[in-house]
Amino acid sequence: MTQTPTTTRQIALASRPHGKPETHDFRVETVDLPELGAEEILVRNTVMSVDPYMRGRMNDVKSYVAPFDVGSPLDGGAVGEVIASRSAKVAVGSQVLHGSGWREHAILPAAAASVVDVGAAPASRYLGILGMTGLTAYVGLTAVAEMREGDTVFVSGAAGAVGQAAGQIARALGAGKVIGSAGSANKVARIRELGYDEAFNYKDGPVHDGLRAAAPEGIDVYFDNVGGDHLEAAIGELRLFGRVAMCGAISQYNATEPPPGPHNLSLAIGKNLTLRGFIVGQYAHLAQEYRGKAAEWLAGGRLQGDETFRDGLENAPQAFIDMLGGANTGKMLVRL
Ligand code: NAP
Fold it and tell me: Which pLDDT band holds residue 2 (cuts at 50, 70, 90)?
């Protein structure tokens, strides 16, 4: 029988980043593991997610999710093996998905974990294409942008975790044309392989030029992962009754001043545009529907999701910083 550990390592927020996060904003610490309480489980985390939204939580601002506290451990999505349990509902040996990442071991209520089948798909998949990432892409296209068959769909951040999923799901749902933007020639080549009809490197020139060349006929749906110049370019190219799913604005997450809004927003009036923001957590009711479709698309080879791995808890802060800077293709994950 495995010896139950009495200590573990975790990453705490050492200071609030100003602009781009630096490794000194994080601290690795060793802490005691308390005794398990009733209905609690002890999980040995094997893989954890680093996500753009965590950057917002490092600021001391009110948002849809509470900020991280300086001096306290970070948290986020993780999968691991249950190595001790005081709950009849979750057995030792189960693999569980939960929200206590950024640590090697986590103690949490059994009710806060969901058992995943790592025989059906690797643990990491439940943090990416089969998890929050894939659901975000699906929700953004369907419930938020109300994509229809034949639509021309533009996705920014297209080689990232959500972006790869969004392009392929748009294609699976019958989009007429799918266009993506990404930050390197390799990423552009990769998303073309994944089924994007047109793709451009937004670092090669103004986004507006890249988009207009890729879609001279205009676009119907914009799946916005980036904000800023991408949003402005999309507003310029959207057709009558075009729709924007405002998923994220990663170009602005490290901003130290309030970023300006799109200069051409008033075009939304004449073009009858809809710009609708969303948080995937509000669409949990679509998770089962998505999982069914995703399993089918994955099995049929219509949906793939790249993964970029880093190893070791101590490298998680750098993985997070590198993800914000574009080092990942597909989902950025840390093996623990
Ligand atoms: P990701 O796309 O896998 O990783 C972030 C990517 O952003 C980087 O790889 C980088 O790729 C790109 N990027 C960084 N700075 C940029 C800039 N200035 N301009 C353009 N691209 C830039 O991350 P993800 O987890 O899939 O998240 C993608 C977006 O979805 C984020 O905005 C995130 O906040 C949002 N999101 C929203 C929800 C929701 O519920 N609304 C849920 C999940 C994620 P390049 O090399 O291409 O620059």
Answer: low
Position 223 pLDDT exceeds 60: yes
Closest CA to 146 of 323, 49, 278, 262: 278
Question: Hey, which bits of the chain come out as E strands?
Answer: 7-13, 26-32, 40-49, 78-85, 95-98, 105-109, 114-115, 152-155, 177-182, 198-201, 219-224, 238-246, 274-277, 307-311, 331-335
Report the SS3 class of residue 78: strand
Question: What residue owns the CA closest to ligand 1's atom 2?
Answer: 160
pTM score of the predicted model: 0.98
Token pair, residue 198, equals 């047109």
Q: What are phi and psi of 333, to 5 degrees?
A: -135, 155
- Identify the pLDDT of residue 3: 73
Q: 34-63: per-residue pLDDT in tens?
A: 999 999 999 999 999 999 999 999 999 988
Domains assigned to the chain: 7-128+305-335 (3.90.180.10), 132-281 (3.40.50.720)
Pocket around ligand 1: residues whose beta carbon is below 6 Å from it?
Answer: 51-53, 133, 136, 157, 159-163, 182-184, 187, 225-226, 247-248, 250-251, 278-280, 323-324, 326, 328, 332
